[in-house]
Amino acid sequence: MNFAQEYTNKLRNAQEAVKIVKSGDNVHYGEFVMNSQLLDAALADRKEDLCNVIVRTNCCPFVPQVVQVDPKREHFTLIDTHFSSVSRHLHDNDLCYYEPLTYHEVPSWYYRGYVPVDVAMIKVGPMDEHGFFNLGTANSYTTAFVSAAKIVIAEVNNSIPRCLGGNKEALHISEIDYLVEGDSEPLIQLPQVPINDIDQKVAELVVNAIPNGGCLQLGIGAMPNAIGAMIARSDLKDLGVHTEMLVDSYVDMYEAGRITGKLKQIDKGKMVYTFAMGTDKLYNFLDNNPVCASYPVEYTNDPYVIAQNQRVMAINNAIEVDLYGQVCSESSGIRQITGTGGQLDYIFGSYKSEAGKGFICLSSSIIGKNGEMISRIVPTLPTGATVTVPRSITYYVVTEYGMVNLKGKSTYQRAEALISIAHPQFRDELIKRAAEMKIWRRSNKIA
Questions:
Q1: What's the CA angle centered on 258, arms 254 and 261, to 5 degrees?
Q2: What is the pLDDT of residues 296-325, one digit of tens each?
Q3: Within this chain, do residues 177 and 219 fall inside the same structural domain, yes or no?
Q4: pTM for the full model?
Q5: Residues 267, 148 share a domain
């Protein structure tokens, strides 16, 4: 086949390509740093022609122009399945909605027809000699919504790293209706979050619990970065990687010789992931690197796939944990902060893994807007707070004051364990509240 001719036939400028969008359409943007700013801007330019267009995305790292040009939401409605700081700000201003999910299930929404897609607008790498376009740093559920789309528009961007599979890491030109050549702007880089002393204390507790040959999953944020940095400096050996998100700290661990993957049971020797976000250090590491394997999320985050590897070490953040062991990792009361992501998938999968451990990590307290100290171990989650991990699934909880395992513990035993790792300033009040909630025994001891 003459792929070059087919490429030419499908080539349009952005303004021409987005003319396919009609009022009432469901438009699906890309995921993470693979969202196309070029196609978003072209669609925003059509504001006066359109009404009631639903735009879906996944963790968009920039403020979409469809929102900027339509603050009254008369033309476009934005939905995001995982909030970045951008979406959080937009949601605070009533300009974005959150779509709850269990991450590994999302592709099935499209295969089963639960989410209509009229037009998919994605970003891809340049076409290879076989007619394939690499999906770059976001495999996730891109192929799922593309397969459901009536029309697919792809921005071709030469700056995108060629991320090897795995599976479903590329689209063939036959699956794309219109091609738009981008200006090869570099991928958005995540700012490096500073690591504080508390992060270091929590990291030390977790790293000491990781065995040689452990298979790592790290979430996003300062605390997982601290853990990755500490592992890179440790003497741990033959670690593996099976994660949803690949971040810069994996590069540090690999280059320090901590990651070999040779003791994994599946994808031996491969660093398995479904999306990547970080700096150019990470993007350059991914480019044409056969040690990295990009998979769709229905593979990376399926708890029963996760569990096929032994010694899975799932390490994630939380906003607060209540005395029953319920974990809230995505909202502050009714305010949406982030999303479920794969936390539930990996905490559940890590327990199913032979010798696996799932850690929920958080500082025991934070400083509020008025300068007051606030406990993150709370009697009950506040009204509207989202339960990301139910108490029946929660495994290890870690603060700078220690690590507790909630498996096999009754309500009063959970309360005692969690109060023991709360900030000392709040322990007496937590004991009082636990007694009022009838989950405390006089014989309980708090160190």
A1: 80
A2: 999 999 999 999 999 999 999 999 999 999
A3: no
A4: 0.96
A5: no
